[in-house]
Amino acid sequence: MQVDGRSTVRRAAAVLAAVAAAGALAVTAAPGASAGDPRIVGGTPTTIDDFPATVIFNVNGAQHCAGTLVAKNKVLTAAHCTDGVEASQMEIIGGQTKFSDTSGEKAGVSDVWQNPEFTMDGMQHDNSVLTLDKDLSYTPATLVQSADDAAYKTGADVTVVGWGATSEGGDVSDTLLKVSVPVVDNASCAEKYTAAGSNYDKASMFCAGVPEGGKDSCQGDSGGPAYVDGKLAGIVSWGQGCARKDFPGVYTNVGNDYSTISSHIG
Ligand code: ARG
């Protein structure tokens, strides 16, 4: 399933579980997936200076997911990235534009809070807060604070960044990439995914993408940030394939869970 440029068995658990949860069909081709610009999918290179809260989330020393620094010693990531993983296996690295750099500050994880409403089957409330064993010096992100924030209005511009796959089933990117996609009407996204046999929870999720496909987050971007107007509105969660026509990316609605999440940030 996951084809990887830098190591053989990275991220397998998170990726496979997310695909299963999304009810993805066992397709070998990606109808509507862009064969064009090979970035995040359909994005462009950016730098960590533009998105300083973005962190690498390794497990057992290998690329697993991404996350966002939300306090000097707290990282918000996806629950599907922490499920079944011990804190002692986790490592957070900040400050790197290039995944392969070794210039960034590193921290271990001393505690994992995983949203108790999350399930791998349903992927609802896909958020976890990691407590780091030391402070990082990078500037934390500000969170959207309510589910009815303008951030989630249809058409709002969502910026997603990550080191994930640059095409469905393709290689991950060594350079941090960004892509901008509009918020998709929640009811029609729910309809599409429900018709495709997936669980879509309108309260704890939102969708972003372009109808023709070609721009999206993808495997390896999970847990990483989705910003609207400079605030953290979403967490990369799941999707049917990547960048497919009519199947936008699905993100955790951070505003919906703001009070729970913030109580674990302190
Ligand atoms: N679950 C994936 C991961 O673990 C992220 C998938 C995002 N998919 C999408 N089409 N936006 O990396």
Show the helix and strand layout:
Elements: H1 12-21, E1 44-45, E2 54-59, E3 62-71, E4 74-77, H2 79-82, E5 90-93, E6 106-114, E7 128-132, E8 157-162, E9 177-184, H3 186-195, E10 205-208, E11 225-228, E12 231-238, E13 249-253, H4 258-265
Antiparallel strand pairs: 1-9, 2-3, 2-5, 3-4, 4-7, 5-6, 6-7, 8-9, 8-11, 9-10, 10-13, 11-12, 12-13
GO molecular function, one term: serine-type endopeptidase activity
Domain Peptidase S1: 40-266
Pfam families: Trypsin
Structure description:
Residues 1-35 form the signal peptide. Residues 40-266 form the Peptidase S1 domain. InterPro entries: Peptidase_S1, Peptidase_S1_PA, Peptidase_S1_PA_chymotrypsin, Peptidase_S1A, TAT_signal, Trypsin_dom, TRYPSIN_HIS. Keywords: Disulfide bond, Hydrolase, Protease, Signal. The protein has helices spanning 12-21, 79-82, 186-195, 258-265; strands spanning 44-45, 54-59, 62-71, 74-77, 90-93, 106-114, 128-132, 157-162, 177-184, 205-208, 225-228, 231-238, 249-253. It is built from four helices and 13 strands. The chain is globular and about 45 Å long. The chain has 266 residues and is an alpha+beta fold. Helix content is 12%, strand content 28%. It starts with 11 loop residues before the first helix and ends with a helix. The structure holds arginine.
Shape category: globular
Unreliable segments of 5+ consecutive residues? 1-38
Largest pleated sheet? 6 strands, antiparallel, barrel
Number of strands: 13
Order of helices and strands: HEEEEHEEEEEHEEEEH
Average pLDDT, all residues:
88
Computed over alpha carbons, the radius of gyration is 16 Å
Q: How many helical stretches? A: 4
Which bin fits the share of residues in helices? 10-25%
Percentage beta strand: 25-35%
GO molecular function: serine-type endopeptidase activity
Domain Peptidase S1: 40-266
InterPro entries: Peptidase_S1, Peptidase_S1_PA, Peptidase_S1_PA_chymotrypsin, Peptidase_S1A, TAT_signal, Trypsin_dom, TRYPSIN_HIS
Pfam families: Trypsin (PF00089)
